[in-house]
């Protein structure tokens, strides 16, 4: 049999499954062509700008690496996929450069997306997948693997990382994204349950629907709080005594391995990481947009609302009926709710900020804006341009009255 097991599980297998005279052959799970890294994201995993680093900027298909993102939560995987797709140039957005992949989808769809990502001529460069697909699914030609969130276990993290660099002669980066709270939990709190089990989550009694901090396992928190060589950590966790367990052929082993060069994670990614400074700038821009929104107190002329309303209704009906465009949303109310449509129809053109677009007047989620905001804004602006032109022509056709002499 073959297995990647921590010590406490290996002992159980030895006692209950293997024959007394079994022969143990060890091979390291620390592949020497993989660079390991961890990164604490800004704010939280739902801050979608954290994922901008996985696309080249400006986007260039020739230099864009193959990136595989693993998520524990399907909803987050869908949000990130939709967001990244919207960051592409308009000409690239319909080419399936960014795809969403989870086991709830049809086999035909999964096969299509898998082939698009793994095939040599495939268009897919970034695949957002659920964690379970790291097992039993072959992903060759992957340059970067990111495990999003504190891993459920170290073994699962290694399975994620092992999906990268499978092509002969290639190298890859395995990165773990985690939230700031992971550094605040004290490992000494993990005193309940089987203390020989490194994957224990018995820090506190778990509620019916535990939060991410509540379900975080001991070994994974130990991993993200580890400030020494990550390759050594993986080796110790699995009692990996293979002669080549600590060997590496990449430029860097990990951020904490002794080296004369400075480890710069952004330099190993397609574009720079989203930083706390970037977040503060974005927050200030959002506050300015909110002030701009509150300053708007006038509304569109009632005579000009009906036609725009019909245009928006026609657009949302078309999107809802198009599998290529609806991102899985088939209910028009989920795409363009009545209250948002009313806001758009009533708002004057100056209400739409030059830089913030619909965010100036619509309190939609980041996901909503990433999916629909650009298309809707184009409809409204085109309507307003045509309306302004019609009013101008109408005014020019009205000649001033001249009193007969």
Automatic annotation (TrEMBL):
- Describe the location of the Helicase C-terminal domain by residue ranges: 40-212
- Which GO biological process annotations does it have? double-strand break repair via homologous recombination
Catalysis: reaction(s): Couples ATP hydrolysis with the unwinding of duplex DNA by translocating in the 3'-5' direction
Q: What class of enzyme is it?
A: isomerase
Q: Which GO terms describe its cellular component?
A: chromosome; cytoplasm; nucleus
The UniProt entry, under InterPro entries, shows: Helicase_C-like, P-loop_NTPase
The GO terms this record gives for MF are: 3'-5' DNA helicase activity; four-way junction helicase activity
Enzyme Commission designation: 5.6.2.4
**Per its UniProt record, what Pfam families does this chain match?**
Helicase_C
* Family of this protein: Belongs to the helicase family. RecQ subfamily.
The protein, known as: DNA 3'-5' helicase
User: What lineage, starting at the top, does this entry show?
Assistant: Eukaryota, Fungi, Dikarya, Basidiomycota, Agaricomycotina
């Amino acid at each position: 049999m073959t297995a990647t097991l921590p010590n406490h599980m290996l002992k159980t297998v030895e006692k209950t499954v293997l024959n007394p005279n079994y022969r143990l052959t060890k091979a390291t799970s620390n592949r020497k062509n993989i660079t390991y890294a961890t990164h604490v994201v800004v704010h939280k995993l739902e801050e979608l700008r954290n994922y901008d680093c996985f696309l080249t900027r400006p986007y260039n298909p020739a230099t864009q690496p193959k990136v595989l993102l693993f998520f524990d939560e399907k909803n987050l995987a869908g949000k990130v996929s939709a967001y990244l797709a919207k960051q592409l140039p308009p000409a690239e957005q319909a080419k399936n450069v960014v795809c969403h992949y989870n086991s709830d989808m049809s086999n035909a769809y999964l096969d299509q997306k898998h082939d698009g990502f793994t095939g040599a001529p495939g268009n897919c460069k970034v695949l957002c997948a659920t964690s379970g697909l790291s097992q039993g699914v072959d992903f060759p030609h992957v340059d970067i693997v990111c495990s999003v969130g504190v891993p459920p276990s170290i073994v699962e993290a290694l399975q994620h990382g092992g999906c990268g660099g499978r092509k002969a002669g290639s190298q890859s980066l395995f990165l773990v994204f985690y939230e700031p709270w992971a550094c605040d939990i004290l490992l000494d709190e993990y005193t309940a349950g089987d203390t020989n089990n490194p994957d224990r989550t018995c820090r506190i009694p778990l509620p019916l629907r535990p939060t991410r901090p509540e379900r975080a396992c001991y070994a994974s928190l130990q991993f993200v709080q580890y400030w020494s060589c990550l390759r050594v950590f993986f080796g110790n966790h699995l009692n990996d005594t293979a002669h080549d367990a600590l060997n590496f052929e990449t430029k860097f082993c990990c951020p904490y391995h002794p080296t004369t060069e400075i480890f710069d994670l952004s330099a190993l990614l397609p574009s720079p990481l989203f930083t706390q400074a970037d977040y503060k700038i974005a927050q200030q821009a959002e506050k300015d947009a909110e002030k701009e929104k509150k300053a708007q107190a006038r509304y569109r002329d009632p005579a000009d609302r009906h036609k725009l309303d019909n245009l928006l209704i026609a657009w949302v009906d078309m999107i809802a009926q198009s599998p290529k465009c609806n991102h899985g949303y088939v209910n028009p109310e989920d795409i363009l709710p009545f209250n948002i449509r009313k806001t758009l129809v009533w708002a004057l053109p100056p209400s739409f900020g030059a830089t913030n677009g619909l965010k100036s007047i619509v309190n939609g989620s980041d996901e909503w804006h990433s999916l629909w905001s650009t298309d809707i804004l184009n409809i409204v602006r085109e309507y307003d341009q045509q309306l302004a032109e019609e009013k101008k022509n109408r005014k020019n056709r009205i000649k001033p009255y001249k009193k007969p002499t």
